[in-house]
Design brief:
Structural class: alpha/beta
Helix content: 10-25%
Shape: globular
Radius of gyration: 23 Å
Strand order of the largest sheet: 9-15-14-13-12-16-21-23-24
């Protein structure tokens, strides 16, 4: 399928196939990947041939999430070992797949630098074999556009080109558009299973330097069962905090799914979210999600990336109801704030009695990343209509029955959302509204929604810390 599409591209007048590494002189006046480049077309290669351009000391960008170019990554790992490469830096947000290049046997060959930690590089980061950059998701493109991190090679996945020669970044536009504007050499993995999406993700094939064909299934999210606590949290948020006509942002996981599953009777909901998953599909099919009240891209679901199952990817394919946009636009607080009743729903790992939130680490153990949590809770907090709701939620206890509401965050934990950021905080025991409350009042509200087994000890700890009793 992809080969046939490319054969059509060769017929576009004024294009020829280029077999050598092209310079990027056209970027001097136009870094956009949209326009056709006269007299340039990419060379078809095997994955092994394509990644042979990677040399020691280079910085390589990797497309993430559902669009992770798995065939190229496998070939890159083998190439690094075969050629005895040294100090190749790989940089990315969350990626899927085994992450071979982060395994111990590749130490010294590759040094992974994660802008958001996924499960496939978490061990390497915490064992000191890989790195992590704390950064707001909205600001990641600035690293490339301001030439703070210059990229030698970009490994990306694309849909096959259409009759005009345009491919699509599919379910993951986010920071990739900025990366390919910066990269000196772009390698495309053309995958016929990649959905073609509307928005900022179109890339003309002439911007690729080489391409490989790998028609493999996209990675799919493993949907876990919603626990009783998560189900109660979903009900509390859906019934008390989400209004008809609200513009939703939600992350991935059981709590967002629990909320979405209870919104079928709402009307005119909209989505403007850094990411979304399958949870939106039932709301579309029952008519609850229309985007009709949105003021930014009215009538459209706006996202930066999507991660779900094949059902989601099939729905996204060639669907003008969804637009995947550059994350600088999606996560910009001033843009978010323009939509009506912005309701930002995010989860976290731990909160102390003053309202400091740990979301990227458990003590010194790095777990995920800053992501877009702060981007969206700020956007909701400053919403122009005054009806925004910044919401953070988590079960009250861990799987080991330890309280997640604590007197002090674990030593070494990073604060993602500060005391000043937190407005609504939800557990299965209720909703704490912290905006405008002093430290004593915050402790009181949070203890009320802690697990009953820990409320007395938390009250004592609050007194020891604050030198006064928590009270309303």
């Amino acid at each position: 399928m992809a080969s046939a599409a490319f054969r059509g591209c060769w017929k576009i007048k004024g294009f020829r196939q280029v077999t050598h590494l092209a310079t990027r002189s056209f970027y001097e006046y136009s870094p956009e990947p949209f326009h056709p480049i006269p007299n340039k077309m990419p060379t078809k290669k095997t994955p092994e041939e394509a990644v042979s351009v990677i040399k020691s000391g280079m910085r390589v960008f990797i497309h993430g999430c559902a669009a992770t170019p798995l065939a190229l990554l496998k070939a890159m790992a083998a190439h690094g070992k075969k050629e005895n490469l040294k100090d190749v830096e790989t940089i990315h947000i969350h990626t899927e797949g085994p992450g071979l290049h982060t395994k111990p046997e590749f130490k010294g060959i590759f040094r992974d630098n994660s802008l958001f930690i996924g499960s496939n590089c978490r061990t390497a980061v915490n064992e000191g074999r890989a790195d992590f950059v704390p950064i707001f998701l909205v600001e990641i493109p600035l690293l490339f556009r301001r030439n703070i991190l210059n990229l030698d090679v970009a490994l990306i996945q694309l849909s096959p080109p259409d009759r005009h020669g345009f491919c699509s970044l599919g379910p993951s536009v986010d920071c990739v558009r900025a990366a390919i504007q910066n990269a000196k050499h772009i390698i495309g993995q053309i995958n016929a299973n990649q959905p073609r999406t509307f928005g900022d993700g179109q890339v003309h094939v002439s911007h690729l330097d080489s391409y490989v064909e790998a028609n493999v299934p996209l990675p799919e999210v493993q949907i876990s069962e919603v626990t009783e606590a998560e189900d109660k949290i979903g009900a509390l948020i859906a019934e008390n905090l989400v209004l008809d006509g609200a513009t939703l942002q939600m992350g991935i996981g059981s709590i967002p799914n629990a909320v979405l599953s209870k919104l079928n009777n709402h009307r005119d909901l909209g989505v403007h979210s850094e990411m979304f998953s399958d949870g939106i599909l039932p709301l579309i099919h029952c008519g609850a999600l229309t985007n009709a009240k949105k003021t930014v891209h009215t009538g459209k679901i706006i996202g930066g990336f999507a991660f779900g199952t094949k059902a989601l990817y099939d729905f996204m394919n060639d669907n003008p109801f969804i637009e995947m946009m550059d994350i600088t636009f999606v996560n910009q607080a001033a843009i978010i704030a323009q939509n009506p009743k912005v309701t930002a729903i995010n989860s976290c790992l731990e909160i102390d009695l003053t309202g400091q939130v740990a979301a990227d680490s458990l003590g010194t153990r790095l777990y995920s990343g800053i992501g877009g949590q702060v981007d969206f809770i700020r956007g909701a907090a400053i919403a122009f209509d005054g009806l925004g709701k910044p919401i953070l939620a988590m079960p009250s206890v861990t799987n080991r029955k330890e309280s997640k509401i604590v007197p002090y965050l674990k030593q070494g934990a990073g604060v993602v959302s500060t005391r000043a950021h937190v407005h609504y905080f939800v557990t299965e025991y209720g909703i704490a509204y912290l905006f405008g409350k002093n430290i004593r009042q915050r402790a009181y509200e949070l203890i009320k929604i802690a697990h009953p087994d820990f409320r007395e000890s938390l009250e004592k700890a609050a007194f020891e810390r604050l030198k006064c009793m928590p009270s309303p």
